């Protein structure tokens, strides 16, 4: 999906801060403002909506900074940013937190759907995104893509269940820590696949 040859190298700590910083700031701001209500004009806004209103421009700024420093953004990063702007904007505009809570669902459905389309065509779109980080044989990419596609759909369903049945506090903790940990654990459990289908250096 992406040409990574033009990507500029930057400090890994700075890159991590730009990628994860907005999420950490969102979480901290929510804990600070969750019990407060703000009146703007004639409309009352809960702390969650105010935090969402701040998160959207922060996400845009961090993405632009990442693009300026590295020379590129992956298609996944661009798609995530677009959905943040759309669903975050709707939540603020309509004063309804449900739209922002739906955002992870839409993101994982989009990613899972795109990977699924590639599988139907006999391709692994995941390979184009991660090939430099994980050099695998074709069979390995296909297996990993099938697993990740299913995993994305599971996360989409799980997000719907959490935000529809649990409190906002629970959802914020789930979004901040649960989803991130879930993706990390998923790749951590694929060690045998990486070992079995790794491309040998001589190849």
Automatic annotation (TrEMBL):
Membrane topology, record value: Multi-pass membrane protein
Compartments in which it is found: Cell inner membrane
Keyword Magnesium set for record: no
InterPro entries per record: YciB
Main localization of the protein described in the UniProt heading: membrane
Keyword entries, A-Z: Cell inner membrane, Cell membrane, Membrane, Transmembrane, Transmembrane helix
Transmembrane intervals: 16-33, 45-66, 78-94, 106-126, 147-165, 171-188
Any one Gene Ontology cellular component term annotated for this protein: plasma membrane
Assigned protein family: Belongs to the YciB family.
Its job: Plays a role in cell envelope biogenesis, maintenance of cell envelope integrity and membrane homeostasis.
Protein name, entry field: Inner membrane-spanning protein YciB
Origin species: Shimia aestuarii
Gene label: yciB
